[in-house]
């Protein structure tokens, strides 16, 4: 076993990670759903897929569907995506 702890010169922990890696600033750890388009287009290459971490699907819990506003329904519909 080899242990390596790199010393980073650039550190960021928000939505700009995707843009930073697309700009060639290094490697990053991103959720597949965020990187999927760039992976499929060939802009990004997955490193060490055998060590990828998988999580349970996301769920939205809310009371019965009765009495919700149209805005709430639009938000639920926007959050309802199929993860490939």
Kindly list the characteristics that best describe this protein.
84 residues
Describe the 3D structure.
By secondary structure, the chain is mainly α. Helices cover 32% and strands 0% of the residues.
Write the layout of secondary structure elements.
Elements: H1 16-22, H2 32-41, H3 70-79
Would you summarize the structure shown here?
The chain contains three helices and no strands. It has 84 residues and is an all-alpha fold.
| Total helical elements | 3
* Relative strand content: under 5%
Q: Roughly what percent helix?
A: 25-40%
Biggest sheet details: none
Q: Kindly name the structural category.
A: mainly alpha
In terms of per-residue confidence, which ranges show pLDDT below 50 for 5 or more consecutive residues?
A: none
